[in-house]
Amino acid sequence: MIHIFDGAIGTMLQNAGLKPGACPELINIEQPEIIQSVHRAYVEAGAMILETNTFGASALKLAHYGLADRMAEINTAGVAAAKKAAQGKAKVAGSMGPTGQFIQPLGDLDFEEAYQTYYAQAKALAAAGADYIIIETSIDLQEMRAALLAAKAASSIPVICQLSYSEDNRTVTGTDPQTAAITLDALGADIIGVNCSLGPEQLVPIVKILADNTDKPISVQPNAGMPKFINGQTVFPMTPKDFARWTPALIEAGASYIGGCCGTTPEHIQAIARTAQNCSEPPRKKPLPQLKLTSRSQTVMIDAALPTVWIGERINPTGRKKLAAEIKEGSLLSVKKEAIDQIKAGAALLDVNMGIAGIDQAQAMKRAVTEIAQITAAPLVIDTSDAAALEAGLRAYPGRALINSVSAEPERLKTFLPLARKYGAAILCLPITAEGVPDTAEKRVDAVRRIVEAAKNYGLKAGDFLLDGLVMTVAADEKACRETLRTLQLYRREFGYPTTMGLSNISYGLPNRPLINSTFFAMCLAAGLDAPIINPYDEMMKNTLAAGAALLGKDPNGRSYSRMESNLKVPKQAAVAEPSTMDTLAAIKAAVIDGEKERIENLVSQAIAEGNDTNTITEKALTAAMNEIGIDFGAGRVFLPQVLLSAEAMRTAFLKIKELLPAQETAKLGTVVIATVKGDVHDLGKNIVAALLANSGFALIDLGKDIDSSAIVKAAIENQADIVGLCALMTTTMTQIDHVIQALKEAGSNAKVMVGGAAVTQEYADDAGADAYAPDGVAAVKLARHLIGKK
Amino acid sequence: MMPIYNAPLLTIDHKEARRYAGLMTAKFDEQAIDAACEEALLLAEPHGIWNIYEYDSKTHIVQNEKPFQIKGSKITAHLNRAEKVIILAATVGETIEKAVTRHFSEGRYAYSVLLDAAATTAVEQIADAIEKAIQAQISAKGYTMRWRFSPGYGDWGLDAQPEMLRLSDAPNIGISLTESLMLYPRKSITAIIGLVRENNETPIVHLPHDCAACDKTDCISRKN
Fold first, then answer.
1. Reduced to 3 states, what is the DSSP secondary structure of residue A382?
2. pLDDT digits (tens, 9 = 90+) for B64-75
3. Where are the extended beta strands (E) located within A222-339?
4. Reported ipTM
5. What is the pTM assigned to this prediction?
């Protein structure tokens, strides 16, 4: 059966005389007959489910009108009005809309406050007799999670979860429909859908993706097209006929609950109800029971038929003193860095372990999960043996996490499985029993069977399990490897669920562990390992995986393997000209121009060994290089970062010369005092000029940023500066240039003044009485040489 | 209520960072640009905040207890049809700025410029995400957004900054103003966005947008 929802309420309330700016939900109490008549019109049009006029009736929203204390009363009246209009002919869905605030860390609202707000509203709606709770128009998966958890806790009536997607088919905070379907299904939503923001045509593909990723019923409530503003009014352009034309397509895509959102009227609902009469319920393919994990914005699947998934193990303070100390001090910088680096190295999931003695692990887990989720799309694995830390992590995580791990120990089953169920997490099943580690594959299968059966009793199902093969040390037990391989094979045969494990235990106590580890890894891949937990920076493991994928047919014809750079016969990068065939000074010059500071040190040593003195190297190689770069920069052939690489190479060269020939003073072209003027805190541009001058043979005194004119004058006099360089980035600060020039003159300095910065122009420099205007750092070097020549 | 949205930054746009670094189409070590984008991702402390106000396009006044008069021919032309305006502020915080300075002082000049460019890219991405969040709110009411315009563009003076800070509630996300009207942390922006609806009487004024609107023709990041 196709279930027909009602359409929009807001427009009809305005037509019935609701004043703009008034609280639309207060009508439930003050003029219930208006609400009832709107509902009645929808019932007559064929709606089978009425949504209550309580979209904005959470205490947080009502607070804008000073009505927070009447929350329960308003929701109760909302349900009563709908029920009265329905007369038993339609069901009533208690509507809960967004709070209007983002949940931390995206916004200021605490997750628990959002939860409590929704809990109270859902409780009121259910107590008043609603048949469903509908959470709708949500733009953030985390807010939806708070509302859904609250609704499930507050009542036992079915919950409908509808997110709202933008034109890029993601919610505002980045969730795609697949990720939404998987996350909300696991979290216990009874009906999953989409409403608002777009017209029916744009929602067809979203409905399709939702339906492909859950076996729950799908609901859809589009707007009547994209709004237009005509004759002073916002109008949704689709006629009931046009709107209803999309009904068969929406049903075919998988929707069995259809209604309307903004701009829809009883006529629209009547039209879709009529069209739907001729449609049968959509045939639904049962989604494959693959293990699917999600973050806020991405889904990762683990399955024998799919490419191997890497679980990065590095966010773990065990045995890493520095990381542990940092976490203990409250810094998550290294943790976040490990997250970014592991993903770059190929990890698709990140294990997060905060097991440090003497800290509040629940708090630490919550923080880590929250912060990592802000910078990566990889789903997380909550790795803890502490139930409080587990719940804190699962609750805070805006996605579907994996729990690492659930063993067959009774205490673990009792504490972890209800949390997995409540938060829709998948579990890593570790075949350890109260008696310890089973030594044979058969006993491990038995242990896992106990975990899976217990989990199923809590409501978990296929697609929620990842089985650990368990790795023991081969140095201590010669059967360790073989039993693990057999375990993997038996898992596949007995359960068919995907498998995981950490690998490095195998080689403990043996020499050349990487060889043992990678060989073992290859064997495990063949035996059916789907998601190894490894150090993703390990190149040998990475190469083994690539070779393994080619051998096992997961990389057809070894195509990816052939493209790996380490497997290419000729390296991609063209061979650089052999420096030894070149004159050493020319080679230094070339290295500076190419910004190759790695080569410079050896070349400088070589040049000195060949008997060149400081001035020869500087003039014939370094200065010559800088001149050439200057010309290329001026002509637009090279760009600022390339010039800076050359400057870095120059710097390396000068440092080397100084080290090898400490007695030889480099001749200085002149002394430059440089500063960003008072009131201006930009210093990158000034730093660039200073670095280029310093590496072109000038003695530099860099005073920094936000420097008072008196300090600049003092430094110029004391150092007998030949040139004073002034930098100002903004129109509001460049007037300081005039002050400094004036003050320099008054103090009797005969230094030449060179100015620059984003807002400064030649014209301004001339008016201020500067001797030169440098539009960029390269020009500054040229001008500085010129000014020195003049003196 | 002032809406706060600290948008998640999952990547920093390599291409944009490249452009802000002034690399145009030059060959460069792309891994260094990636590394800068990753460090920016790690160090960014993204925050965004905004408010929506009624706007009188005839008098150029943003309606508030303390009205805000907008001055400048380009900005007022740009807002010629706006009924409401969004005033927003965004920042990536000061940690990243310190890292830019540190890299430079340790001799990594080029990388420092790349990181600075990645930070600029990040601020713009946060502002883009805020626009997306507001779009979801306003589109059902028939509004569309004009592109965002900041003090300092064209002839809209920086003296608008104090009012932009006040009306966006920027101090709530840690943005302040120096005496010389610079935003602190340096990698911060304020901007105004006009909200318009279909209306056949007055055509929208379409000014050159983006880089084309800017007078600084020798800017190293200029497009085209």
1. strand
2. 999 999 999 999
3. 228-230, 233-235, 255-258, 291-294, 299-302, 311-315
4. 0.89
5. 0.91
Examine residue B180 and state whether it is found in any structural domain, yes or no: yes
CATH number assigned to the domain comprising residue B113: 3.40.109.40
Name the A residues in 51-70 with CB < 8 Å from any B CB.
Answer: 64
* The predicted structure's pLDDT at residue A574: 47
Best of B83, B180, B217 to disrupt the A interface (most A CBs within 10 Å) is: B180
Q: Enumerate domains of chain A plus CATH numbers.
A: 3-277 (3.20.20.330), 291-537 (3.20.20.20), 579-660 (1.10.1240.10), 670-790 (3.40.50.280)
Query: Do B181 and B158 form a contact (C-beta atoms < 8 A)?
Result: yes
Distance in Å, alpha carbon of B10 to nearest chain A alpha carbon: 5
Q: Reduced to 3 states, what is the DSSP secondary structure of residue B68? A: strand
Q: Scanning the structure block, which residue is given the tokens 């673990």? A: A412
What lies within 8 Å, CB to CB, of A666 at 6+ separation is A614, A615, A618, A654, A657, A658, A697
Quick check: A217 and A209 in contact, CB under 8 A? no
Helix (H, G, I), strand (E, B) or coil at A311: strand
pLDDT of A148-196, one tens digit each?
A: 999 999 999 999 999 999 989 999 999 999 999 999 999 999 999 999 9
B108: which chain A residues are within 8 Å (Cβ-Cβ)? Answer: 648
Instruction: Flag whether pLDDT at A684 surpasses 80.
Output: yes
B 26-55 residues inside an 8 A Cβ radius of A: 26, 28, 38, 41-42, 46
In degrees, rounded to 5, the angle at the alpha carbon of residue A318 between the alpha carbons of residues A312 and A321 is 115
- Cα angle at A559 between A553 and A565, to 5 degrees? 125
Identity (one letter) of the amino acid at A165? Y
For A696, the token pair is 């072109």
Report yes or no on B219 lying in a domain: no
* Interface list for B 124-183 with A (CB within 8 A): 129, 132-133, 135-136, 139-142, 152, 157-158, 178-182
Number of independent structural domains in chain B: 1
Is B162 a member of any domain? yes
Residue type, A385: S
Chain A interface includes B8 (CB < 8 A): yes
Q: Is B65 touching A (CB cutoff 8 A)? A: no
Report the Cα A355 to chain-centroid distance in Å.
24
Q: Which two tokens stand for residue A600?
A: 């410079």
Q: Do B181 and A106 touch (CB under 8 A)?
A: no
Residue B74: domain span: 14-198+208-213
> Could you tell me if residue B170 is inside a domain?
yes
Q: Which residue in the set B8, B112, B198 is minimally distant from A174, CB to CB?
A: B8
Report CA torsion sign: A233, A239, A245, A250: positive
Residue B214's pLDDT is: 74
DSSP-assigned letter for residue A622? I
Q: Which of A595, A639, A679 sits opposite B23 (nearest CB)?
A: A639
The 10 Å Cβ neighbour count of residue A717 is 15
SS3 string, A49-100, reads EEECCCCCCCHHHHHHHCCHHHHHHHHHHHHHHHHHHHCCCCEEEEEECCCC
Residues of chain B found within 8 Å of residue A376, distances taken between Cβ atoms:
10
Q: Closest by alpha carbon to B127, among B165, B176, B83, B92?
A: B92
How far is Cα A265 from Cα A211, in angstroms, rounded to an integer? Answer: 27
Q: What distance in Å separates residue A366's CA from the closest CA in chain B? A: 17
DSSP single-letter state for residue A553: T
Q: Which of B 85-114 lie inside 8 A of A, CB atoms?
A: 100-101, 104-105, 107-110, 112-114
Is A701:B151 a contact under the CB 8 Å cutoff? Answer: no
* Confidence bin at A575 (pLDDT 50/70/90): very low
Q: Flag if A684 and B104 touch (Cβ within 8 Å).
A: yes
